[in-house]
Specification:
Blueprint: E1 3-5, E2 8-13, E3 18-23, E4 28-31, H1 36-39, E5 44-46, E6 52-54, E7 58-60, E8 78-83, E9 89-94, E10 100-105, E11 113-119, E12 125-129, E13 132-137, E14 140-145
């Protein structure tokens, strides 16, 4: 499960490029996915406004009927997405060199920009704690101020 939206719960197949909606009546509907051969590897995230974001590369405001690319996408694809208590969406991305880059969106995923933070090595998780983002990076925990 990826999250709740206005019509129910979003589910996807991790090994196939398929996205499903489990509605409030318990019925499952397959939704249109944005780019089938690549879609299955991106995390799916539902914002507080109900927008569906696939990585930092696709966005749907109509529960998967149509998909658009956000402006200023990294082109790399996010490994994980969170929305902070301030409403900022943070995408944890792996760079071409295997390091970690953070992208942020302040407009419900319509655009992403780079946060001026570069973390050496792969990071596997991100969470908000108080006024900081905590990033699991190998054997260490990286702390940065909330954007």
């Amino acid at each position: 499960m990826h999250g709740a939206c206005s019509k129910g719960l979003l589910l996807s197949s991790l090994h196939e490029a398929r996205l499903f909606l489990l509605d409030r009546k318990g019925e499952i509907e397959e939704l249109c996915s944005p780019h089938d051969e690549y879609f299955g590897v991106h995390p799916i995230f539902v914002t507080r406004k109900g927008t569906i974001i696939a990585g930092d590369e696709w966005r749907s405001m109509d529960v998967g009927k149509t998909w658009k690319r956000p402006r200023s996408s990294s082109g790399i694809g996010a490994n994980m997405l969170i929305q902070t208590s301030k409403g900022v969406i943070v995408a944890l991305c792996e760079t071409e060199r295997g390091d970690t880059r953070l992208l942020i969106s302040r407009d419900d995923g319509a655009s992403f920009s780079r946060l001026d933070v570069r973390i050496k090595g792969k990071s596997t998780a991100i969470a908000e704690l108080g006024d900081r983002l905590l990033i699991a990076n190998g054997e260490r925990l990286v702390r940065i101020p909330l954007p």
